[in-house]
Amino acid sequence: MSNTKKGPTTATSTGPQTLEKIWDGDLFDRSQDAAFLQRFLMDQSQLVDAQKKRKAYVLNLDASWGRGKTFFLKRFADQVKQDQHLTVTVNAWRDDFADDPLLAVMSAIDEVLQPHLKSNSKAQKAWSAAKKETGAIAKEAAIGGGKRLVAFLIGNQAVDGITGLISDGMAENEQEDNGTTRDTSKKPTTDSATRAVGEDVSKAVGKSIDRLSTQTGTQMLNDFQSKRNSIKKFAENVSEVLRQLEQAGTIKSPMFVFVDELDRCRPPYAIAMLERIKHLFEVPDLVFVVATDSKQLSHSVKAVYGVDFDSRKYLKRFFNRTYEFEKPDTEKFIRSCFDSMGVLEEKISTPLDNTISLLAKGCDWAGLELRDIEQVVASIAAITRLWEPNVRLQSMLLFPYVILNHMGIDITKAETFVKELKERGRGGWTFQIHAHTRSPGSDSVSVIDQLATYRKYMGMQLTKMLFELEQKANGMDFLQYLAVNIREEMYERKARDVEVYSYMNEYHRLVLQAGRLQ
What we know:
The structure is a single chain. The protein has helices at about 15-20, 30-50, 70-80, 100-115, 120-150, 155-175, 190-245, 265-280, 295-305, 310-315, 330-340, 355-365, 370-385, 395-405, 415-425, 445-460, 460-475, 475-495, 505-515, and strands at about 55-60, 85-90, 250-260, 285-290, 320-325, 350, 395, 430, 445. The protein is an alpha/beta fold. Strands 2-3-4-1-5 form a 5-stranded parallel sheet, sandwiched between helices. The protein has a two-stranded parallel sheet with strand order 6-7. The protein is elongated and about 90 Å long.
């Protein structure tokens, strides 16, 4: 029997070799999530169709920054496309300059549909009708948006308009006051003039509002009914397009629309996008996959509706279900960051040369999120790339410094920060020194506890430091490991007879400088 590892497969006829190519570079095994979600969404779309529900299915892919949402959506779309489903990708952040997100979504759909419409006149006709209704819907949105803008920002033009409105009303007042006009030859006092103007303005605004209410009431009702009809026709026409293309054997249902970067958009645009998806695309055989960082998106909602608004509950109403990625393996993520940021590992000294494992354990110990881990690696990358001495950096001192600095602990106060860590109950960051032990437990040390050891010896001159370490090692693996590195530094610096101190004394300055890069 062959032991060759097979590539991921889907429920369709897509070959494993094709999927292997699509998911090349999949560090977090997201292909397994895609295989499950494709089967799930296909089933849910069929269920909606069987129940005669005229609505799209909307899935929220909820993952925080750095967990590969964009990587996943792109490859998930490619996978679905291989199975002859129409796939549309919308980069919400790239398109949020538009007033109405409906236009961005329709533009993306139009680009995908066009090659399939040339040989299908019925589908082409339905799509033209849908685009016509899009114009009517977007026009109403633009008018509403303009009104809200004036209400929010009363600029010079708005002031001019209001002034004109009041002037007209005041002119009417003068003609209606007992059928006469005011005697302007008499010079009023300041107080009486102020009262007169106030009364005139009050009357003018009241008359204008009454007139506008009478004129626009019927029109507003007509506009509402017209907009509702446009939305209904829009959904019917989109549904007809998909039906015609499927009957012709051009595509398979459902059509997938992938929306990415929504949490990076302007708050009003992000909310409008969700509203458009919910209210306009009441179309069977249509699946939306919306990638968000729900925590970040909820802040956007609060920015619009207020800090006391229940944004989490509000967001849930837009989605049928939410899918969350499993937390990725820390070591894999760090390896990816090391490669992309150009960390020079050859400049780092780590027991057993297991640099990634040491840093991963430290990040897990500190409870860092992926965004924090990336910033930690960025600091390490900057330090290794700018490190000039021909002496390797001590990772068991450098990595704790970088992580503690990122946590907001003052690493310059050598006499207090180790004590502070112990008081916080921060234990558990242990690391193996040697592959084979001579005594039980002698190979595993607490990295945080060893900070005190580093601080104890760093204040000594190199020659004295080496002498003390060799005297006190006595089978203690960590002290022996440290002595080897100090001997290496002495050799490189030719410092046997020179009173010099270890380069380790410079670490905290480099860490602070690198940490200021955001």
